[in-house]
From TrEMBL:
GO BP terms in the entry: endocytosis; protein deubiquitination; proteolysis
Protein name in UniProt: Ubiquitin carboxyl-terminal hydrolase
Source organism phylogeny: Eukaryota, Fungi, Fungi incertae sedis, Mucoromycota, Glomeromycotina
Enzyme Commission numbers on file: 3.4.19.12
Recorded GO MF terms: cysteine-type deubiquitinase activity; zinc ion binding
Amino acid sequence: MRSKTSERTPVQVDCPHIHKIIKKDSPLAKIESSSFKKQITNSSLHCDICETRAPKLWICLHNRCRAVVCHTSSKSHMRNHFDKENRDDSCHSIFVNPHTLKILCHACSSELNPFGDNNFLTSEARTYLKTVIRYLQMKRNKSQISIDQIPIDVPGLVGLKNLGNTCYANAALQCLSNTPALADFFNYCDAYIPQILYISKHPNYKLGEYFGQFVKAMWNGTSPIFVPVQLMNEIRKYNEVFRGHGQQDSMEFLRCVLDILHEELPYPQFMPGKVSKNGECIYMNQTISTSTSSNNSHNVCETISSTSSTTTKTSTTDRIQRRQSTRNSIISQIFQGTLESRIKCLHCKKEYLKEENFYDLQIQIDKKFKLKSSEKFPENLSSSSSSSGSGSVMGSLAGWLGMNSRVVRLQDCLSSFCAIENLTGEDKYRCDKCESLNDCQKRLRITRLPETLCIQLKRFRYESCFSSKIATHVQFPMEDLDMRPYCKDLSNEKGNPELADTLNITKYDLYGLIHHRGVLGGGHYIAYVKNPIDKNWYEYDDTFVTRKSEADISRLEAFVLFYHKKGSEKDRERTEMSSKINGDSTAETCYFISRLWFNRWQFMTAPGPITNYDFICPHGGVNTRRYPNIHNMVVKVPFSVYTTFVNKYGTDGSLPFHSADNAISGCTFCEQEEKILEQRRRKEDEDIRKIDTNSIKRGEYWFLISAPWLLSWHYFKSGGSPPGPIDNYHFLNEDGSPKVGMERGINYRGINERVWSYFEHVYGGGPVCVRNAIDLYAPNPLISDYTKHGKSSKTKWIKK
């Protein structure tokens, strides 16, 4: 991973007092004592003169002083200490806040930031102050480390402020920030994000923008603590569960963030000949290829012979396609896998296949199945189901109370997850062929492995009487977790070679972990992440960042595990190609490659074919108005590297860009189209201004329109791409009835009939929604043919 410096310019400070301090003793004098460190960790540190505690405390950095003083609006023992102790030969003007980790010179009335780039601090002063901050940032450790072992210049070691029971969010965000492909996307592919955010059609949400600011703050090294206020506020807009200050589930928060980012950040694909007349973008979708009957596009009938592995078309197997992703994004590229569920009716032998995408596997720790003894199970299945005490009364009671000390392996839990389960009793499955509830067998298999595998161990058990936390320790591999035993054999899938290729690399290494300390209904979340720069493990406990050993990590009670694919051959390729790209290539012709594809090549095992459709226009050129920062969207590679990439990964037909042609000078066709669009923008703006009103006359009605669509039209008016058809299904159900919880101004707005007719004539879409007032839940005074008969023709109005 690469770190990126911030574009913000800190205030330049020339402080002569700091140089008096760094010439003295060790920067860790006094604060390295275990008792002092313990007081900082447990927030029991207070002012030497009064009882004031954090965050109003400051520590004098004079080596032989290290007094703890307070500074509030009503009193300042820091000022008193400075006035009393500071002399020409003894500098007592530099203070550090152990809570916020800010350093202040009282004499200069200025803040000293050793992590910034543009100030007058010498390298010696920077090292001194960084050592102090990094040590205060660490929690008290049993094994003390020396000054030389303190990671003062390692990027990514940034704590997150707890905003009030937000440790669940901090733990999830730390793991996402340390996912290399995701961090690199926001640091180096950020030139794509403004256009992507528009394409996503979610103008109400700006999580992609705030998440990008968060990732840059975590990796630019300008501050040891980040306060994620804007990020949390944006997530709370989307999901009210995370509003307030109650403790929430870290995994639920993680899923929410991934879902929003996936919707906001699709990959743009401007394919020649596949662009609609209004300039809409075509999305590159990766869906599973399945045979589709002409009568029903959602069901495929197949038979699986008991004596042969060949598949023939009959009516004994129903294949239900997985819900196709409407778009492909950096999130789906990193985290999305596919799971196949196979259910077999034991009465008629009919099988039902269903494939679904997943961002995480939810694995039960103490899952027990009624298994068919004649089946061949994956390895280690028997060890998990026959562990000592699991079936005893005391073992069960201990499990309910969260005191079970039984140890199982992660592979045992995965084997149980993929084992055959008998659906009997209350779990019977309804067979469409038998038209009854029958005993069935269910089995899960992975058909597409994600680049980053996220596994949640379900430690919280919820029952009607009482709930509990499962404290069973699960041994998890730090390296070489092999997922092949839990995957479907796709070697015979002739129609899906790309899908079979996704299972070629099946081994994973651990890089992140979320630990829950405490009991159900309370407790605390902590993240443990392997830094991709120095390859060391760190504990992220809100603002505290402490180095840990692999032995410490292996003993943890894991709640969520993060694994990324490993491939030694891929690593060698990256090393070899990167050396050529960064070397002297003046003798070679160079080509431009999309940074989005280059990001996938750097951090993913299957980057897919080379594509430049991420930034080229439908004419094969570049729209420089849409992409003014085009040079930040491409990577220049030598011809030999480009040829190697093409031979190994292929291309999707997009044209290569030759650097000697000054690649990205602009497309003349796009310039002409932009002139036409600009005229259209001015005309539509003028027309709407003439007919738009804030009130309506007697006998007229308000036409409700999607607020997000209206925002996208305003975006077009200010220079963006044209919006698509009007989509009032944002606030209406398929039958035209209002959705629950829709808000005026956020989900819908009101316009008069002339404005509606204008938009409908230009953009089409619908359906029509009419009210006497701008209130979605008011009675509908009219009935439209559109909502009544589902017709898209012109609306015919009938009075009630």
